């Protein structure tokens, strides 16, 4: 049996220290935690920075390093620093060094790097070694070369290679959410379908239980399946909560694709062992003919300025969509008349918060809001151009009337000045897989002694 302790769905989200202590007392074989994802958009990958506060990351990581020392087992983090680029792996490594010195404990650390050279990836694309996933954007070699950061998603094989070094701590770049959990059970001869299925259920910690914010769960893997047990007070797993997690971030509730194959849970059975634990068997791992890893890439998409205003006059609230469209039409015309910029080089949109900011024309629910927040989003090739368009938009959001005949209205800005400059913004550019002859071909592994 392989016992995996998962403290939280991601480092930086907090975990229950009492539940963690119970997990350590239960003698796990490994502690595994995720470090991030693409959930918060392309900026973190594009810039190579973490979403989470350094102070919070250090506090939680320090607690896990103490737990690891008490349990005498490896501690592994995947997708270090939100995006898993080399820059955030180094950020996580620096934090680990600081804590090691403070705790007075020398450590052997394995560092798995997932960043890719855009030129090398462009050459692989030209050689036919990269294929698109469903709904992937059309790309060219130039698209790839324009990416500021590209990462490959490591699977269980790459995490296993890091574990084989005997490291106390493994800091991995971008990985699949499941790889850091499935790797050791697979290495120790566990049921392959159970290893991948249990890893999927445990990827977000206690999200598969009735107290999802508690974070801490234990998963026991063996020769026929796995058992999941949440460890916090008041947290219970049931066949419903466990099976439902196959729907999380997954378009098919029965199939999950990973490097080297896919998981099929069509025949899986879920049995409540008691009020807390659930046993799962019957999952199947189906190897693929070729080993592939997913690529994620982000590239600059221009510079952005954001302007916000509030509408409270009932007539303007009721006619906000027409008012906003008239502003966009007039302001775009003014930009083209007064600035040296092509029509297709910039975007200007007004989103109506409280009416249609999320879905636009696809919104199906209607209400009578008291006020509407108006957010103007401007994207242009340079920061100066975005800022200039923001200033051209400014008077419209403060005084623009619905009709030419009526008195000039006055609305409210949230701040002075109302323009907020985001600087360079990024867009995802890749949703493709890279074919590898050997699983380690796209990854680098180094072993360090620190502390």
Q: How would you describe what is shown here?
A:
- There is one protein chain.
- The protein is an alpha+beta fold and about 450 residues long.
- Helices cover about 30% and strands about 30% of the residues.
- The protein has helices at about 15-25, 45, 55-70, 85-105, 120-125, 140-145, 155-165, 180-185, 190-200, 240-245, 315-320, 320-340, 385-400; strands at about 1-5, 30-35, 75-80, 105-115, 130, 150, 170, 215-220, 225-230, 255-260, 260-265, 270, 280, 285, 290-310, 345-355, 370-380, 410-415, 420-435, 445-450.
- The strands form three sheets. Strands 12-13-9-8-1-2-3-7-4-20 form a ten-stranded mixed sheet, with helices on both faces. Strands 5, 6, 15, 16, 17, 18 and 19 form a seven-stranded antiparallel sheet that branches. A three-stranded antiparallel sheet has the order 10-11-14.
- Helix 1 packs parallel to helix 3.
- The longest helix has 19 residues, at about 320-340.
- It is globular.
- The chain starts with a strand and ends with a strand.
What oligomerization state is this entry in?
Answer: single chain
Structural class: alpha+beta
Number of helices: 13
**Total beta-strand segments:** 20
Can you tell me the overall shape? globular
Percent of residues in beta strands: 25-35%
User: In angstroms, what is the radius of gyration?
Assistant: 25 Å
First and last CA, distance? 32 Å
Largest sheet: 10 strands, mixed
> How are strands sequenced across the largest beta sheet?
12-13-9-8-1-2-3-7-4-20
| Overall pLDDT metric | 95
Roughly what percent helix? 25-40%
Low-confidence stretches are none
